[in-house]
Amino acid sequence: MPLIKNNVWEVIPRPEGKSVVTSKWLYKIKHAADGNIEKFKARFVAKGFSQIKGVDYDETFAPAAWYTSIRSLISIAAKMGRQIH
Asked: How far apart are the C-alpha atoms of 1 and 41, rounded to whole Å?
């Protein structure tokens, strides 16, 4: 597999008694306003819906930022003359 040769993926053994979450590639073609193809996009997603709470995981965490927090960080960066990437 060429991706492993380029050190993009790392193969690790599955822990005993643990199930593997299946995954798939999603492909999308983005079109410009005139209908021409603008770019091809691809993403790799995990099918997390196949997991069972209490068996495969115990808790859920979804990081989210408050709009006021983001605005505050931008304000501090502007005051200090820093660039944000």
From this structure: 21
Query: What parts of the chain have a pLDDT lower than 70?
Result: 1-4
**CB of 77 within 8 A of CB of 84?**
yes
Q: With contact defined as beta carbons under 8 Å apart, do 51 and 57 qualify? A: yes
DSSP 45-65: EE-GGG--BTTTBS-------
The encoded tokens of residue 81 equal: 């003359």
Give, in order, the Cα–Cα distances in Å from 9 to each of 15, 41, 43: 18, 19, 14
